[in-house]
Amino acid sequence: MKLTSRKIAFAATTALSLAATAAFAEDVPSWCGPDNATLALLDGSGGNSWRQITSASAREEAEKCPSITDFFYADGQGDTQKSISDIKSFAARGVDAMVVFGDAGPAVLPALTAAHRAGVTVVPYRQQVGGEEGVNYAKFVSASFVSDGVNFGNFIKREFPDGAKMLFLSGPAGNSVGLEMLEGLNSVLDERYEYLNPAPFHVTNWDPALTQQVLTAEIAKHPQIDVIISDYGASLIGGLPAFERNGRSIPAITTESVNLLGCFWQDKQANNPDFKLLTRGGGNENGRLAAQWAIALATGGTPPETSVYTSEIFEDSVTGEPSEVQCRRDLPGEIYLSAKLSPEKQLEAINQ
Amino acid sequence: MNTANNATYGTMPPGLFGRCRPSFELGTVVLSTLALIVLCMIFAPSSITSGALAGSLPFAAVAVIVGLGQMLVVQQGGFDLSVPGAISLSVVISTHYPAGNDAELLPAILLALAFALGAGLFNGILIGIVRLNAIVATIGTNALLYGGVIAISGGVPRTTTPLLSRIAGGEFLGLGHTVWYALVIVLVVAVVLKKTVAGRRFEGIGANPAMARTVGLRVRSYEMSAYVSAQLLYCLAGILLAGLTSQPTAFLGNSYLLPSVAIVVLGGTSLMGGRGFPVPTALAAFFLTQLGQFSITIGVPFSAQTIIQALALGLGIAIYSFRRS
């Protein structure tokens, strides 16, 4: 009887531990390999909420991998020399992998190359730094805004099948976000869709005051604006009440999601029948993809299928798919409800 | 040196508009503005509709306040390059400390004013007493102020409180509140400069500090007062700007440095110091803002917009330089 109990106990323990191992294996993502590694996240200019939330997302991603034994973060504070010195000092300290937002562009390439040659898995992301994969760094994780343009264009085609008058606003002159988005838009829209802005887009420097002035002038000039396309939704809000002042409805808008905009839509949509909203996610998951690549290469895991980050549609006020317009009034306007990082953790990230 | 015949500082008791008769500076800026309005009527009629002006005038008003601050410093032969930091700091203080809570707005505004006072005194001491070059000293102060901006905000924008939105964005008698504030500030600066003993001394010291020192005026105190007043004006402009934009960025002051100097030059104040022209300066701020709206409305590319503004500035400098020589 005793023997039987022991056997049962042994069998139960074995079964339990097997189950636990299986569960553990399921929890560990495929990009997390068996080799232990340390990871550093180096920001060239970490001083804004988007960057802080993106960095916190990358950190959360790294925490999913038990092979990552230590995680470091450094902010170049917009100073190229500090960014270069951060890269060099972490390489000298012997980190196994580094994810780098190279704000300074090719200026940080020599430092990245030196770290790569010293055996560090170097993964720059989002900002082009020049150089070649395998020679100057392990992998470049890019972001494409063409797909945003395609998504926006499809929404415009769906809501305005016979053509539309559009106003496209982006950041500084020649910025790649705006140009790629335009490429996506033009791949979907034909000549019935007319841009009211000077080509390629209205320059706003992503400055809310300038955006407001541009919007004011355009609203007064054009009696018909069907849709406003922008890559920075929060900056539009100050200028939109001008439509109401002129006795017009706020038009359809395609832009980036942010809590403030969602709440603004909820406040205004009843009195503005044309105010339809399509938003893309905030793009904070770009940091996660870069972290996955760095960890996979450093720990011997399976790398993700793609190294190009594309954000997806987040809210569609017409179909409610994949989400209705969201607003959390208990949270600050600058929170990205589209991010996988919980709003509480976002708050923690931007208030630290 | 005979200041009586000096074009930058006359001996006639000047009226609010410079002298008793309309000054050359006022005439120039009024004519330019009228010309611009005519151009707008022909090529960009929508830019002077009431709807467009309701949107652009509040920003012109902010530019007026910033321009007056820079004017006071330029009158003392100085230059204030701490405009971006000063505006950005008051923007982040008035949005970050209240964090959307109206009850916290007043303490935040008082705090912003206290910081402005501190920055003004710091500039004033460095330039008026330590005798540092104004450009060098104010660049340093700008960096310090930006340090404050980053320390307070971490570079993160925060949404304006509803009360501040109403204070800055509301309308009274068809004009935005900000426009009324700017009118009051222009009036106060004009009266103080032109109708008070302190104001007259201020202008006299700017025109000829050596002479003023000889007759026993407290030159350093007046120079310091220019920097302090300027910072207070930038601070007010920043608070209003925070109210006008629903989610101001932490670097909103960056776009005001060059326009502040351009406004002063177009307003007719000599970069060598001396007489100031508050009303022409205010009109110049409107001129520059409307020129921006005109360029946007006629639909020229951004590069051409910048060139048009640069040409206007160049023309302004040329007209005044030609007259003074």
Describe, in plain words, how this protein is organized in 3D.
The complex is a heterodimer of chains A (352) and B (325). Chain A has helices spanning 2-27, 49-63, 80-92, 109-117, 146-159, 176-188, 208-221, 241-245, 259-268, 285-299, 343-351; strands at residues 37-43, 68-75, 97-101, 121-124, 142-143, 164-170, 193-195, 202-203, 227-230, 252-256, 277-280, 308-309, 313-316. Chain A is an alpha/beta fold and 352 residues long. Chain A has two domains: 37-144 and 284-311 and 340-351, Rossmann fold, CATH 3.40.50.2300; 146-280, Response regulator (Rossmann fold, 3-Layer(aba) Sandwich), CATH 3.40.50. In chain A, the strands form three sheets. In chain A, strands 6, 7, 8, 9, 10, 11 and 13 form a seven-stranded mixed β-sheet that branches. In chain A, strands 2-1-3-4 form a four-stranded parallel β-sheet, with helices on both faces. In chain A, helix 4 links the parallel strand 3 (97-101) and strand 4 (121-124). Chain A is elongated. Chain A starts with a helix and ends with a helix. Chain B is built from 13 helices and two strands; from the N terminus they run H-H-H-H-H-H-E-E-H-H-H-H-H-H-H. A two-stranded antiparallel ribbon of chain B has the order 1-2. In chain B, a hairpin with a 2-residue loop joins strand 1 and strand 2. The interface between A and B is large, with 44 and 40 residues.
